[in-house]
């Protein structure tokens, strides 16, 4: 029996076959059961922001597990209060901000959805979201996720959500005083690292404010320093009503949060939302330590610097199929000229590089925020070799087709 047999028999089929089984990680590297080493430029989908087995992560989880793990939300704990205060400071909410803790991105967005309903009431039944944005897989967040193919097997959806094309003009014509909220991903990660049009967030802030609607920014992939700011909305110099975070804030511990600003902080009242695990001492201690380390080591600056270095390396590659980069900081989408992204991912794995393909013509790079020169150089070599492998097989296919004709 191989691990593939076990996985095929025992694990839910909602994911495709697992590509590899990993047994250990350290820094930017992973190892499989045969002892083969891989450079990890996926970081568990922008999650392990300090890399694998970082001493700060290990220490925080061990210490807190040996002190106090969980008491329920009938009670407060010091790490929970520390993390709430830190998130408010990093997000710039000022005094009036509040934090709701959940255990995932989807839970953070579920809380945001409920916030929007509380704000909207009967007068504002409309919620606006963007086509191709991704907000999660639970029934509520799936209703916010503008992908018909994902929704179709699970219809009917929670009503009230309308999808807009991502342009200021589309938002201008859709918004009115019956809109409770607009939810936006500052860079559409799952769609293929697609940047918003220039000025979109500023215009969205202005229009939502004018019509009394909440602006909710989904920072689940872009947050925790990944784009070179703590949260991507900060590049635009706006203040949203709420943001959602998860992925990178826990460095590998499952945790998510809804952070509210100003009056939006007064919408939830006792009994309107909750979670057994959300914000427990163990998870909040880890996330607080991870964020403290991102601050201490100035990994926001590193994200900008290494991001620029990576882009330069990619632009310098000798490949006819690479068509440039999208994204910001260490959230990079490499555009391909042919729909061969899955083949590039498979070739990269053979060469000892872990990357992923959010769509057929994009490679997503979301390495740990603390990678250095060495990892960037090694990436460039391995990526070049992976592209070569795919280019050679494309040439081979073309030649075979020629011979068949
Ligand atoms: C990953 C992601 C989610 C969902 O987070 P989960 O932890 O998988 O539930 C929501 N929004 C965005 C932008 C994401 O990248």
Automatic annotation (TrEMBL):
Record keywords, A-Z: Amino-acid biosynthesis, Aminotransferase, Arginine biosynthesis, Cytoplasm, Pyridoxal phosphate, Transferase
Coiled coil: none
Subcellular location: Cytoplasm
EC top class named in words: transferase
Enzyme Commission numbers on file: 2.6.1.11
One Pfam family hit: Aminotran_3
Keyword Transit peptide recorded: no
Entry-linked InterPro entries: AcOrn/SuccOrn_fam, Aminotrans_3, Aminotrans_3_PPA_site, Class-III_PLP-dep_AT, PyrdxlP-dep_Trfase, PyrdxlP-dep_Trfase_major, PyrdxlP-dep_Trfase_small
Residues reported in the UniProt entry to bind N(2)-acetyl-L-ornithine: 137, 275
Pathway: Amino-acid biosynthesis; L-arginine biosynthesis; N(2)-acetyl-L-ornithine from L-glutamate: step 4/4
Modified residues (N6-(pyridoxal phosphate)lysine): 247
Keyword Cytoplasm annotated: yes
Cofactor(s) essential for the protein: pyridoxal 5'-phosphate
Note: May also have succinyldiaminopimelate aminotransferase activity, thus carrying out the corresponding step in lysine biosynthesis.
HAMAP family: ArgD_aminotrans_3
PANTHER family: ACETYLORNITHINE AMINOTRANSFERASE, MITOCHONDRIAL, AMINOTRANSFERASE CLASS III
Family affiliation: Belongs to the class-III pyridoxal-phosphate-dependent aminotransferase family. ArgD subfamily.
Record's protein name: Acetylornithine aminotransferase
Source species of the chain: Microbacterium awajiense
């Amino acid at each position: 029996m191989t691990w593939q047999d076990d996985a095929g028999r025992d694990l839910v089929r909602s994911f495709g076959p697992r590509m590899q089984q990993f047994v250990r990680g350290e820094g930017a590297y992973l190892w499989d059961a045969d002892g083969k080493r891989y450079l990890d430029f996926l970081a568990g989908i922008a999650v392990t922001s300090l890399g694998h087995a970082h001493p700060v992560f290990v220490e925080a989880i061990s210490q807190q597990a040996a002190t106090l793990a969980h008491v329920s939300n009938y009670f407060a704990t010091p790490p929970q209060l520390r993390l709430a205060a830190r998130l408010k400071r990093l997000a710039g909410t000022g005094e009036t901000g509040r934090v709701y803790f959940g255990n995932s991105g989807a839970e953070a967005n579920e809380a945001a959805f409920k916030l929007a309903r509380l704000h909207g009431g009967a007068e504002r039944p409309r919620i606006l979201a963007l086509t191709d944005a991704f907000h999660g897989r639970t029934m509520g967040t799936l209703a916010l996720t503008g992908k018909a193919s994902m929704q179709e097997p699970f219809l009917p959806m929670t009503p009230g959500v309308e999808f807009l094309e991502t342009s200021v003009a589309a938002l201008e014509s859709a918004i009115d005083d019956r809109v409770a909220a607009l939810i936006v991903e500052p860079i559409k990660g799952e769609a293929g690292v697609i940047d918003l049009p220039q000025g979109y967030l500023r215009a969205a802030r202005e229009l939502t404010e004018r019509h009394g609607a909440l602006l909710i920014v989904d920072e689940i992939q872009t947050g925790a320093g990944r784009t070179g700011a703590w949260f991507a909305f900060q590049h635009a110099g706006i203040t949203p009503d709420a943001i959602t975070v998860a992925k990178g804030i826990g460095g590998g511990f499952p945790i998510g949060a809804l952070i509210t600003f100003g009056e939006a902080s007064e919408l939830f009242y006792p009994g309107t939302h909750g979670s057994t695990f959300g914000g427990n001492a163990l998870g909040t201690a880890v996330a607080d330590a991870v964020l403290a380390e991102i601050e201490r080591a100035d990994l926001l600056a590193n994200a900008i610097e290494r991001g620029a270095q990576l882009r330069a390396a990619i632009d310098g590659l000798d490949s006819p199929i690479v068509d440039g980069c999208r994204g910001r900081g260490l959230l990079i989408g490499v555009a391909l000229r042919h729909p061969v992204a899955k083949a590039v991912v498979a070739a990269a794995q053979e060469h000892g590089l872990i990357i992923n393909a959010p769509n057929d013509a994009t490679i997503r790079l979301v390495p740990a925020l603390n990678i250095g020169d060495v990892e960037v150089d090694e990436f460039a070599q391995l990526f070049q070799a992976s592209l070569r492998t795919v280019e050679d097989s494309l040439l081979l296919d073309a030649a075979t087709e020629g011979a068949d004709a």
